[in-house]
Design a protein that fits this description.
Helix 3 packs across helix 5, helix 5 runs parallel beside helix 11 and helix 10 packs antiparallel against helix 14. The radius of gyration is 21 Å and the shape is globular. The longest helix has 26 residues. By secondary structure, the protein is an alpha+beta fold. Helices cover 50% and strands 13% of the residues. The N and C termini lie far apart (63 Å). It folds into two domains: 113 residues, Phosphorylase Kinase, domain 1; 270 residues, Aminoglycoside 3'-phosphotransferase, Chain: A, domain 2 (Alpha-Beta Complex). Bound molecules: adenosine-5'-diphosphate (ADP) and the ligand CSC[C@H]1O[C@H](OP(=O)(O)O)[C@H](O)[C@@H]1O. Adenosine-5'-diphosphate binds next to strand 2, strand 3 and strand 7. The ligand CSC[C@H]1O[C@H](OP(=O)(O)O)[C@H](O)[C@@H]1O binds next to helix 7.
Length: 396
């Protein structure tokens, strides 16, 4: 019996992944296939199958019944694979040029078979090596605006929006975000992870009631504001890029949440990268940060003008109200991401990879101070320039 006929979960190996590929008939008959497991993320297996005759490849991503980074002591739903497949397809309806094509999926095996993007580089890795990816922020601004507007109540019939919100109910993965981004870093929790040199700054966060109150409000917004079908984990490690092309992968955290969360995570990761660079080399990243919002604002506004479903979109001032809410959420979520990636579980290579200890600690202190300022000032600041300017000065 073939692996597909069994209709039951089993973790793939490089051998069974090749057998599965043959069963799916995705390569010509004369192919010579080889396979490597290339997953470098926290959660899943990723098999890269290549055909040396026709020089083509495919990717099979498989969820494990636990979080790979921790092991079997952290069980995790296999349903995340279906969520990922369906989110890639749903977002692909609006931005096919910015997501990988899905060739096949199987709920029992928890796999997504998709386009091989190996000709591109993970944006985080490229940025660390000094690449600037001129199209990155325009593409991501467009990705966010189109996927989020098109899955919101401004574009969908209320029955369809609510059907999608049920289809993409993702409680286990949301709980990870609720804990790791919005809760643990603000308390003395065992999952936190930081250098002793940061203890004073971290304890100041734990004692800062005003900051914790704002983090609580942001967490509530994440849990309750079912505005659009989010990617849910839009960091620079979830984006493939080149000089001309951008592709967003890994939407297993997708669910109906606040629009500012995707924008905030992306901008937050650009800020994390900016503070890892010497000041003289930050300008190109600051331009990406500002351009992300500019492009998002422009495409979202364009879609808003075309919307015929929600009568209130024609009421003067409503669009500005919505965009102001999204902007304020964006700053707050970016601030939470800066703090969690610095002192919580699951750091970023941009900061942890700084070999010189003094420079690493200085960059991390800057990330924490900027994170706090973004959270506390999110309803006061009306542009990202203020946050960028603060990086040259004292931030809290
Ligand atoms: N479509 C793809 N094409 C080529 N490589 C991929 C593709 N999808 C994932 N990868 C590789 O696998 C790694 C982990 O994938 P990712 O979806 O981020 O997994 P996880 O959910 O475990 O974080 C990526 O960093 C990338 O190197
Ligand atoms: C133990 S889950 C921590 C972290 O991992 C996820 O990232 P990725 O799947 O891209 O490796 C997500 O960001 C979670 O917050």
């Amino acid at each position: 019996m073939t692996i597909l006929q069994k209709k039951q979960y089993e973790p793939l190996t490089v051998e069974t992944a090749v057998n599965l590929t043959k069963e799916l008939d995705l390569f010509p008959e004369n192919s010579i296939l080889s396979c490597r497991e290339i997953g470098d993320g926290n959660l899943n297996y990723v098999f890269h199958i290549t055909d040396s005759i026709n020089e083509k490849g495919i990717i099979i991503k498989q969820a494990l019944p636990y979080a790979k980074v921790v092991g079997e002591s952290w069980p995790l739903t296999l349903k995340r694979s279906t969520i990922e497949t369906n989110a890639l397809k749903k977002h692909g309806e609006f931005v096919p040029q910015l997501v990988p094509e899905v060739y096949h999926s199987d709920e029992d095996l928890a796999i997504t078979v998709m386009e091989d993007l190996s000709h591109l580089t993970i944006a985080r890795e490229g940025l660390i090596k000094g690449q600037s990816y001129p199209k990155l922020s325009s593409h991501i601004g467009e990705y966010i605006a189109r996927t989020l507007f098109s899955t919101s109540d401004f574009a969908l019939h209320p029955f369809e929006k609510k059907r999608l919100a049920v289809e993409f109910s993702n409680p286990e993965l949301c709980k990870i975000t609720e804990d790791l981004i919005f809760t643990d870093p603000f308390f003395d929790h065992e999952t936190n992870d930081f250098e002793p040199e940061l203890r004073e700054d971290v304890e100041a966060i734990w004692k800062n009631n005003a900051l914790k109150l704002e983090a609580a409000k942001l967490k509530l917004s994440f849990i309750t504001d079912a505005e659009a079908l989010l990617h849910g984990d839009l960091h620079t490690g979830s984006i493939f890029a080149s000089e001309t092309e951008t592709k967003v992968i890994d939407p297993e955290f997708a669910f109906y949440g606040p629009i500012g969360f995707d924008i905030g995570l992306f901008i937050g990761n650009l800020f994390l990268h900016a503070v890892s660079r010497e000041e003289a080399h930050r300008a190109v990243i600051f331009e990406h940060i500002e351009n992300t919002w500019t492009v998002f604002h422009s495409v979202f506004s364009e879609l808003w003008e075309q919307s015929n479903l929600e009568v209130y979109t024609k009421v003067e001032g409503y669009k500005e109200y919505i965009l102001q809410k999204i902007f304020s959420d964006t700053l707050g979520f970016a601030g939470c991401e800066l703090i969690r990636r610095t002192i919580g579980l699951s750091h970023v290579k941009d900061l942890d990879g700084i070999a010189d200890k003094d420079k690493r600690i200085a960059a991390k202190k800057q990330a924490l101070a900027l994170g706090e300022a973004l959270i506390l000032n999110r309803n006061k600041w009306n542009s990202l320039t203020v946050a960028i300017t603060l990086l040259g000065e004292k931030t809290a």
